[in-house]
């Protein structure tokens, strides 16, 4: 058994988009910016397995799906279907692949042709792939998705169906070719809750009864648990954590997964959930360079071993360094708060500190920051950057390896990379002391 | 007892369409007190948005309040003219957060220009004072004060939504009506926004009418809830009463249809069928065709909202079998008991 290749294997898949290639950029020979929508993603889908990819909007999950079905050309890596790399596919193999890998899209209201009857919609893929018994197959598949009796639906057009019925037709359309794999992109997010439950249940049955494998893409952790055995958490193009669904919900390891799980509302007024401590939104996935993608929002970013500093104070320095490097310190705005004392460097430095920092620093940390701010107001931002980097550079500014434990739990975070096993996200006080 | 901020009393709203009158809201009643968050839940088309729109005169031109009263601080406002609404209520007293922030900001004006325009119409404050006020609101919703002079396109979606909330808060209204304010957002951003709304409530004693199909947000963030089905209020009460002691079958089935990350293995409830086509007022229970416990009585006349005998004085439900439906439901689903137990244990762990 073990020598049988997995159904679908995604190896270091990359999909970058180029941005900014206007005429002026070309004339000036500017390097185009790269949007790193999918960045080094590896996943394995076994037969009869249902895995989920979850993440916020803009994390690249839909791009991943579109790349999988060949609607985007991959920038790097490979997709291996039953042992054969997609990059080496002949056109006959492509046709077979497209028959065996089917998609259910998010929006049932726009993904069906409004001019076709349900029967025509469902017959079309059969015609394309030259499959007979069309009438029989259409009836069967409608019964499977519980659109009963089929006669009632055959002649209808999408506008005569409710949202839930439309999504069932979308599922039927995906099933009618008897695929191995269904890729589902937020298939219930636009449905009412009473319908949502029914469609989720139907999809769960399909996996179990028909032996279809599924990649379920969603931003909603609470529905994922009904469909998928394994969850991959995606953040800004990368998979940060992979684990069995029940375990990831109970004990998330990556700080981002932690934040995501803890922000899911609990439908119970007796349950007292603490609101998220996260602020801001993910940054744009443009030219992200090296480093953990989550470090700018991470509540437990790792300071160098050599210094002693509180997490919150350290965060402020990291954020300030980032702004400094991007040349985004609002110098003029801060100076406008000072009344005319532009000649006094110390006052200017203090004004910037007051605007960007709320936490006190002591000893060497304080001295280095003071020095850096003075260098900055003296118009030597590169000196300021260098001073701060030398003392405060975090291991999180290098990309973490993905480490895997014996249960197959995979996480890409320096807290694990470095042998730190106890996460201390909930106790910032204790995190400070080491 | 202090006077309630908003009272909706037997409100009926009808739309005139080519195929006749449609009753979108039928005899809805609820109360919102100062500093109270009230959630209005239900499927799409149940009349929750129409209810909210009728409060601030936002109905489409073919819609009208045909009976019932809306009282704001004791004054009847259901017959207010546009002029009265503009001068007395909108922005200053009642502000509106629409579902889609992207479409509700003027792309050609900076946020501060839009705020100054609103402020000049509704208050006597100077431009400088208005700007200061907007800065204050920006910091409450977690936006940098310096960004009040940005154009909407300079913000991300989540930031635009917060800018809209800042504008809604700007004149310190007593009531905010929010129509699915976070539906388009991710959970972390949604949580950030509710964190700010919690803070606003604590600081300014603001009330909220929250319209959403997401009952989990209501159970977490609101004190009271009304669940609507096919233009009628099925059940209304404090969130604890409606959660612990639900009386209307739609209310507890709706609740059970929601996934809960604490119980990933629980079967989700499916509510079969559809609400009746909205038309003239109907003379039977609107849930009758979807209700497993319906009897002949439910087809012969429509149940009225009546008090539920429990600790919650405001708790009402419109069901003939409200005394027994939930007990029947629980006894038919033997697993529910043990799952409640698991939920309770998880609670203690937290």
TrEMBL record, chain A:
InterPro entries, sorted: AAA+_ATPase, ABC_transp_ATP-bind, ABC_transporter-like_ATP-bd, ABC_transporter-like_CS, Oligopep_ABC_C, P-loop_NTPase
Record region (Disordered): 265-286
Ranges for domain ABC transporter: 8-261
Keywords: ATP-binding, Nucleotide-binding, Transport
One Gene Ontology MF term: ATP binding
PROSITE patterns from the UniProt entry: ABC_TRANSPORTER_1, ABC_TRANSPORTER_2
GO terms under biological process: peptide transport; transmembrane transport
SMART domains for this protein: AAA
Protein name: Peptide/nickel transport system ATP-binding protein
Organism name: Halorubrum vacuolatum
Automatic annotation (TrEMBL), chain B:
GO cellular component, one term: plasma membrane
Protein's UniProt keywords contain Cell membrane: yes
Keyword list, A-Z: ATP-binding, Cell membrane, Membrane, Nucleotide-binding, Transport
One example of a Gene Ontology biological process annotation: peptide transport
SMART domains associated with the record: AAA
Cell location: Cell membrane
Residues of the ABC transporter domain: 6-255
Lineage top rank: taxon: Archaea
Residue ranges, annotated region (Disordered): 330-350
Topology relative to the membrane: Peripheral membrane protein
Gene Ontology MF term list: ATP binding; ATP hydrolysis activity
Primary localization: membrane
Protein name: Peptide/nickel transport system ATP-binding protein
Lineage: Archaea, Methanobacteriati, Methanobacteriota, Stenosarchaea group, Halobacteria
């Amino acid at each position: 058994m073990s020598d049988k290749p997995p159904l679908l294997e995604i190896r270091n898949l990359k999909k970058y988009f180029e941005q900014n290639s206007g005429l002026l950029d070309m004339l000036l020979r500017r390097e185009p910016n790269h949007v790193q929508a999918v960045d080094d993603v590896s996943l394995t889908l076994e037969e009869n397995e249902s895995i989920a990819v979850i993440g916020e909007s803009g994390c690249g999950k839909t791009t991943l799906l579109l790349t999988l079905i060949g609607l985007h050309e991959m920038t790097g890596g490979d997709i291996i279907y039953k042992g054969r790399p997609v990059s080496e596919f002949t056109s006959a193999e492509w046709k077979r692949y497209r028959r065996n890998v089917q998609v259910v899209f998010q929006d049932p209201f726009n993904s069906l042709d409004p001019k076709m009857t349900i029967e025509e919609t469902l017959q079309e893929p059969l015609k394309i792939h030259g499959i007979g018994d069309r009438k029989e197959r259409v009836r069967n598949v409608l019964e499977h998705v519980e659109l009963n009796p089929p006669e009632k639906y055959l002649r209808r057009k999408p506008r005569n169906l409710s949202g839930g019925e439309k999504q069932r037709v979308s599922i039927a359309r995906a099933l009618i070719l008897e695929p191995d794999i269904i890729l589902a992109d937020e298939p219930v997010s636009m449905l009412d809750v009473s319908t949502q439950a029914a469609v989720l249940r139907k999809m769960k049955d399909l996996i179990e009864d028909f032996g279809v494998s599924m990649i379920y893409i969603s931003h909603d952790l609470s529905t994922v648990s009904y469909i998928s055995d394994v969850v991959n958490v995606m953040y800004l193009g990368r998979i940060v954590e992979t684990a069995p669904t029940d375990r990831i919900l109970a004990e998330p390891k990556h700080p981002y997964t932690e934040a995501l799980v803890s922000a899911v509302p609990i439908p119970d007024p007796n349950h007292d959930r603490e609101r998220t401590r996260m602020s801001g939104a993910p940054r744009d996935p443009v030219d992200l360079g090296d480093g953990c993608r989550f470090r700018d929002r991470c509540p437990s970013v790792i300071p160098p071993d050599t210094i002693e500093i509180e997490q919150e104070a350290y965060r402020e320095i990291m954020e300030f360094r980032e702004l400094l490097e991007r040349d985004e310190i609002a110098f003029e705005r801060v100076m406008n708060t000072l009344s005319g004392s532009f000649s006094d460097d110390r006052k200017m430095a203090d004004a910037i500190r007051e605007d960007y920092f709320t936490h006190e620093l002591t000893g060497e940390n304080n001295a280095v920051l003071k020095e850096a701010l003075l260098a900055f107001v003296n118009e030597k931002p590169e000196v300021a950057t260098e001073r701060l980097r030398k003392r405060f550079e975090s291991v999180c500014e290098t990309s973490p390896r993905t480490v895997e434990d014996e249960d197959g739990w995979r996480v890409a975070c320096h807290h694990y990379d470095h042998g730190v096993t106890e996460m201390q996200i909930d106790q910032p006080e204790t995190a400070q002391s080491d | 007892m202090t006077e309630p901020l908003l009272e909706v009393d037997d409100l009926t709203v009808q739309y005139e369409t080519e195929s006749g009158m449609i009753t979108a809201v039928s005899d809805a009643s609820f109360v919102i007190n100062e500093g109270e968050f009230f959630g209005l839940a239900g499927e799409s088309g149940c009349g929750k948005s129409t209810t909210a729109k009728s409060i601030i005169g936002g109905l489409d031109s073919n819609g009208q309040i045909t009976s019932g009263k809306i009282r704001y601080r004791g004054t009847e406002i259901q017959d207010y003219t546009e002029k009265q609404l503009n001068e007395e209520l909108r922005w200053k007293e009642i502000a509106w957060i629409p579902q889609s922030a992207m479409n509700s900001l003027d792309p050609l004006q900076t946020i501060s220009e839009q705020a100054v325009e609103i402020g000049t119409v509704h208050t006597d404050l100077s431009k400088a004072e208005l700007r200061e006020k907007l800065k204050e609101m920006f910091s409450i919703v977690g936006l940098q004060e310096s960004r009040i002079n940005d154009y909407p396109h300079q913000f991300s979606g989540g930031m635009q939504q917060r800018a809209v909330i800042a504008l809604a808060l700007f004149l310190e209204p007593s009531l905010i009506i929010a129509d699915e304010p976070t539906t388009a957002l991710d959970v972390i951003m949604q949580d950030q926004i509710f964190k700010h709304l919690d803070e606003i409530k604590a600081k300014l004693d603001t009330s909220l009418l929250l319209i959403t199909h997401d009952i989990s947000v209501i159970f977490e963030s609101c004190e009271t809830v009304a669940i609507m089905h096919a233009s009628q209020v099925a059940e209304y009460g404090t969130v604890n009463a409606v959660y612990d002691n639900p009386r209307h079958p739609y209310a507890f089935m709706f609740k059970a249809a929601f996934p809960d990350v604490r119980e990933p293995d629980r079967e989700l409830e499916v509510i079969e069928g559809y609400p009746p086509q909205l038309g003239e007022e109907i003379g039977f229970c609107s849930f009758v065709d979807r209700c497993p416990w319906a009897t002949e009585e439910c087809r012969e006349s429509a149940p009225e909202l009546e008090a539920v005998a429990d600790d919650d004085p405001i708790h009402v439900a419109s069901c003939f079998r409200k005394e027994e439906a939930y007990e029947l439901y629980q006894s038919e689903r033997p697993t529910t008991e043990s799952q409640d137990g698991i939920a309770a244990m998880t609670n203690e762990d937290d």
